[in-house]
Amino acid sequence: MFSTVYKVTSPRVVEEFVDVVEDIESKVLVKVDVMAICKADIRYFLGAREKSVLEHKYPLAPIHEAVGHVVKDPTGTFKKGDKVILIPNSVDERYYTDPENRRCQRPDLGENYYSKATFRSSTTDGFMREYYTASPDLLVKYGHVPANLAVFSELLSVASAALRRINFNEVKKLALFGDGIMAYIVYIDLTQDHPELDLTVFGIDQNKLALFKDAKTTTFEEYKGEKFDTLIECVGGKFSEDAINNMISLAIPGADLILMGVSEDKVLVNTRVVLDKGLSLKGVTRSTREDFIHASNIIQDKKSQEKLSIMVLSENKINSVIDIYRCYEEEINNKTKIGKNLLVW
Asked: Which residue of 11, 47, 75, 76 has the lowest C-beta tally within 10 Å?
């Protein structure tokens, strides 16, 4: 069986390939329905990583945020037509025996941190394809939810992974730094699972902050309140340095700082205050199957669906590589809205 696959072959160049869809007699065959571009996909598209890294990446099919429906399942796990979330990360049998992996098996971490794990659109081709085959454990059924909302499940799973790093029995006041997509996704998860939480969101764009309706919102410069025992950073990029150091200044002794924003540059951190306060810094990036299951539960909630719906900026049918270029440019140029321009087969 053949499938159209689009791959980034060099900066700002996307080409169409025809791949053979393998293992259709032993794995679940999925028709990809809706995809979303993330900042990592944009970095590969623009070539905004070190040349030595990119030389080992191209050609690379992008996209790790995707949902689809089951076409055929010889394993008997799913029914034809079942709607599923595609899990982008996986490990092989080495995960269970490699001594390097001993810390990853803690429940607050997970297999996604194993150095030999693979991740779609990074260490292996992503989901920018018509058809995809996977073992059943790399798919999660999501039920009667619009696909254009379910596609945000990967982001919700990362939020779930971040919140697993927090002991909520010890949380009295939580600060969320960021007013972009990831911060909004973490906000959705927090308000769903911990509706009584004393939550303050720090940002700079008042129009974006207005969307965080179930939390207190402010800028760092305007804030005059109490300090926090738990702080989450969802800024990333060149502004992550300011955000992390502002968090350090607002943290009480012994506070936990959860870092989620990705920066290609080294970030200077005020380690003197980290030491003085005995702070813990925890990094979060990818999620586990359990996080995807949690995400599939979140999207069943009507209030969460309402919050997710504002993130659908447009839905774009893919008929040719030109449509992919257009979506990438729209994502690159979107500086003012929380949301994504989705790709639809």
From this structure: 76
Give the separation between CA 341 and CA 59, rounded to whole angstroms: 23
pLDDT band at 106 (very low <50, low <70, confident <90, very high): confident
pLDDT tens-digit map of 173-208: 999 999 999 999 999 999 999 999 999 999 999 999
Smallest CA-to-CA distance from 45 within 35, 32, 58, 64 is with 58
For residues 238 and 265, give the distance between their C-alpha atoms in angstroms, rounded to a whole number: 7
Q: Which residues contact 99 (CB under 8 A, 6 or more apart)?
A: none
Q: How far is CA 271 from the centre of its chain?
A: 28
Does this model's pTM top 0.85?
Answer: yes
The secondary structure element, H or E, covering residue 15 is strand 13-20
Instruction: Label residues 55-83 b or e (16+ Cβ within 10 Å = b).
Output: eeeeebbbbbbbbbebbbbeeeebeeebb
pLDDT tens readout for residues 254-264: 999 999 999 88
Confidence of residue 120 (pLDDT cuts 50, 70, 90): very high
Measured CA angle at 113 (ends 43, 106), to 5 deg: 150
Strand partners, 175: 200, 231
DSSP-based helix, strand, coil % in the chain, nearest 5: 30, 25, 40
pLDDT 10s digits, 203-224? 999 999 999 999 999 999 999 9
Q: Are strands 199-202 and 174-177 parallel, antiparallel or unpaired?
A: parallel
Q: What type of residue is 214?
A: D
Is 26 exposed, middle or buried, given 0-12, 13-18 or 19+ CB atoms closer than 10 A?
exposed
